[in-house]
From TrEMBL, chain A:
This is Tryptophan synthase alpha chain. InterPro entries: Aldolase_TIM, RibuloseP-bd_barrel, Trp_synthase_alpha_AS, Trp_synthase_suA. Tetramer of two alpha and two beta chains. The gene is trpA. Belongs to the TrpA family. Pathway: Amino-acid biosynthesis; L-tryptophan biosynthesis; L-tryptophan from chorismate: step 5/5. The lineage of its organism: Bacteria, Pseudomonadati, Pseudomonadota, Gammaproteobacteria, Alteromonadales. It catalyses: (1S,2R)-1-C-(indol-3-yl)glycerol 3-phosphate + L-serine = D-glyceraldehyde 3-phosphate + L-tryptophan + H2O. The active site is at residues 50, 61. HAMAP family: Trp_synth_alpha. The keyword Lyase applies. It is an enzyme of class 4 (lyase). GO terms for cellular component: cytosol. The alpha subunit is responsible for the aldol cleavage of indoleglycerol phosphate to indole and glyceraldehyde 3-phosphate.
Automatic annotation (TrEMBL), chain B:
It holds the Pfam family PALP. Tetramer of two alpha and two beta chains. Belongs to the TrpB family. GO terms for cellular component: cytoplasm. It catalyses: (1S,2R)-1-C-(indol-3-yl)glycerol 3-phosphate + L-serine = D-glyceraldehyde 3-phosphate + L-tryptophan + H2O. Keywords: Amino-acid biosynthesis, Aromatic amino acid biosynthesis, Lyase, Pyridoxal phosphate, Tryptophan biosynthesis. PANTHER family: TRYPTOPHAN SYNTHASE, TRYPTOPHAN SYNTHASE-RELATED. It comes from the Bacteria. This is Tryptophan synthase beta chain. Its EC number is 4.2.1.20. SUPFAM superfamilies: Tryptophan synthase beta subunit-like PLP-dependent enzymes (SSF53686). One of its GO terms (molecular function) is tryptophan synthase activity.
């Protein structure tokens, strides 16, 4: 297993900071621009990356990220092209933790073990399968671990204690904690992150939690960290900037860098 | 139907059929699926629930449906074809059976809002009528393309009080409507039941839908024994998602002498890629909550299906069919648009029954069998729906070919 997540969290802790983790869909709006976007996110101060492989049927995603999947698949990009892009990023940025967020059929289509192997070769640290709950995840965990990939599971806001414990024990690297129910989307109704949930996860010996869904403004990041999360993941707010500037790449990159700097600043103690 | 009549048991149903099935959904939906499973187990053991369901099946839907012997189609052949007349059910197809069952379950769980997906509008219509009857709020997700193509069905649903929400995402068809209903459910499950329309999706849906359609095969079995004094040689049904077929097969799976045949839509021909023959031409994969067979490309991106019959136009299939296929207990074959259209006309002109285009696929295969066989065989076909909904569509196709003005 790579140590990139634990190294990130310990150095952030030493600096009294939380993690800011942007999410984008690989290949959105096209492969070349996507690679520039990812490099921009890192250069602007992202602590880690959460990246989606585009899928035809993204059931856990709201309209903004659905549209990103559609934009990416317009160009008929392949899983191999996504892994090749990741390998180029990894070559230039050896330290940053890179997580993949995928749908199950992309993982199993050509053999689960082969998928994790290709991910590992591309320098990926973790894989979260959006439509694989813990109950089905037991089949995937050993295959991920065998390739040195950290399996990540989602802790929902209304989960039972047993589920939270299971998620804490099965997830390595970090735990994806949901701020609310529903699908992804920056719709301004982020619930106060439940400090209780985070306590339960920590007590179960879980990796640090990253809060996701609806993280769109600096105060969302501050609230997440104040509640005990290790940081926050922002997806739809980032992807919306891409969509708004689809045909103006320079303005897009400038706006993305500005967004990351603002959100990253919110992770730093005042 | 009161919550107090529930008994709690800790037994769970098997979420898998061999390697197929499971619960491939976001973690957040598991409590909703667990609640549904428990409510279903309790209801199956609750005589009051069964009585209410039975009462509605009889007095509202018109069960049992007859088993009709083809009088003219098989002239000259030693083969007899019996049709299980689900076309005579209220709503015009088998779909209303399980919709009513699930709507009663939703009430039992204290849910007040129902969401459902629909392709051509058949499942949406069945859901809307059950919600009107039982006083439930009803939201139907329908691909925008489908909603435009099926205006009369949209109006039908709205007449019965449903709100029809067009879905723009993806290709704007059934698969996208399923995605949208699942998205709604991840935020709404405390008050809302997702009334899935076929024997697919995450566990426990494939089992619930099968059990709430089981009477199709149970009645047919009793009726054929009454008419012929023996079991049929073959039981035949069309397969899109597979609900009418699994309802028909369920009572015959443990009768080794009865051959089970599912008929998939070959569309313009399996070789053209424009079809919905998931079991014949797809491979295993995960979509809409279950592991089953799937039409997909080399990377696992789900492909669009195609069939002249909207009810069979789905790139997945119920997991129990994938299992029956894998172990060889059922065989799955396919019938093209062309063959289905021919059967549609033949059954209309020879038997005075206008079948749904879906059911015409099953009948096309049965007619082919009757032509080829020289033994006195008995075939039972599920005539799963009536064809009124398809009249305009078929007339347009035939007019284009100059067969009819």
């Amino acid at each position: 297993m790579s140590q990139r997540y634990s190294q990130m969290f310990s150095s952030l802790k030493a600096r009294q900071e939380g993690a800011f983790v942007p999410f984008v869909t690989i290949g959105d709006p096209d492969l070349a621009t996507s690679e520039r976007i990812i490099r921009t996110l890192i250069d602007a101060g992202a602590d880690a990356l959460e990246l989606g492989l585009p899928f035809s049927d993204p059931v856990a995603d709201g309209p903004v990220i659905q549209a990103a999947n559609i934009r990416a698949l317009r160009h008929h990009i392949t899983t191999q092209q996504c892994f090749d892009l990741l390998a180029r990023i990894r070559a230039d940025y050896p330290e940053i933790p890179i997580g993949l967020l995928v749908y199950c059929n992309l993982v199993v289509a050509n053999g689960t073990s082969a998928f994790y192997q290709r991910a590992a070769q591309a320098g990926v640290d973790s894989v979260l399968i959006a439509d694989v709950p813990l109950r089905e995840g037991v089949r995937f965990i050993p295959e991920a671990q065998a390739q040195g990939i950290a399996p990540i599971f989602i802790a929902p806001p209304d989960a039972s204690e047993a589920t939270l414990k299971g998620v804490a024990q099965a997830s390595e690297g970090y735990i994806y904690l949901l701020s609310r129910s529903g699908v992804t989307g920056a719709n301004d109704d982020v619930n106060a992150p439940a400090a209780e949930l985070i306590k339960t996860l920590n007590n179960a010996g879980g990796a640090p939690a990253l809060l996701g869904f609806g993280i769109a403004r600096p105060e969302h990041v501050q609230a997440a960290i104040a509640a005990g999360a290790g940081g926050a993941i922002s997806g739809s707010a980032v992807v919306r900037i891409i969509a708004e500037h689809e045909h103006k790449p320079e303005a897009m990159l400038t706006a993305l860098a500005e967004f990351v700097r603002t959100m990253k600043a919110a992770t730093q103690a005042k | 139907m009161t919550q107090s009549s529930q008994t709690t048991t800790s037994e769970r149903l098997d979420p898998y059929f061999g390697d197929f099935g499971g619960q491939f959904v976001p973690e957040i939906l598991l409590p909703a699926l667990d609640q549904l499973e428990q409510a279903f187990i309790d209801a199956q053991n609750d005589p009051a629930f069964q009585q209410e369901f039975q009462h509605l099946l009889t007095t509202y839907l018109g069960r049992p449906t007859p088993l009709s012997l083809c009088q003219n189609l098989t002239k000259g052949s030693p083969v007899k074809i019996y049709m299980k007349r689900e076309d005579l059910l209220h709503g015009g197809a088998h779909k209303t059976n399980q919709v009513l069952g699930q709507a009663l379950l939703a009430k039992r769980m204290g849910k007040t809002r129902i969401i459902a997906e629909t392709g051509a509008g058949q499942h949406g219509t069945a859901t809307a009528l059950a919600c009107a009857l039982l006083g439930l709020e009803c939201i139907i997700y329908m691909g925008r393309k489908d909603a435009e193509r099926q205006q009369p069905n949209v109006f039908r649903m709205e007449l019965m009080g449903a709100k029809v929400v067009p879905v723009d995402a993806g290709s704007g068809t059934l698969k996208d409507a399923v995605n949208e209903a699942m998205r709604d459910w991840t935020a709404s499950y405390p008050t809302t039941h997702y009334l899935l329309g076929t024997a697919a999706g995450p566990h426990p849906f494939p089992t619930i839908v099968r059990e709430f359609h089981r009477m199709i095969g149970a009645e047919a079995k009793a009726q054929i024994l009454e008419a012929e004094g023996r079991l049929p040689d073959e039981v035949i049904a069309c397969v899109g998602g597979g609900s009418n077929a699994i309802g028909m097969f369920a009572e015959f799976i443990d009768e080794p002498g009865v051959r089970l045949t599912g008929v998939e839509p070959a569309g313009k021909g399996v070789a053209t890629g424009e079809h919905g023959a998931t079991l014949s031409a797809g491979k295993p994969g995960v979509l809409h909550g279950c592991r089953s067979f799937l039409m997909q490309d080399a990377d696992g991106q789900v492909e669009e299906s195609y069939s002249v019959s909207a009810g069979l136009d789905y790139p997945g299939v119920g997991p129990q069919h994938a299992y029956l296929h894998a172990i060889g207990r059922a065989q799955y074959t396919s019938v093209t648009d062309e063959e289905a259209l021919e059967a549609f006309q033949l059954i209309s002109s020879h038997e005075g029954i206008i079948p749904a285009l879906e059911s015409a696929h099953a009948m096309a295969y049965a007619i082919r069998r009757a032509k080829e066989s020289n033994k006195p065989e008995i075939l039972v076909v599920n005539l799963s729906g009536r064809g009124d909904k398809d009249i305009d569509h078929v007339r347009r196709i035939l007019a284009q070919r100059g067969e009819q003005s």
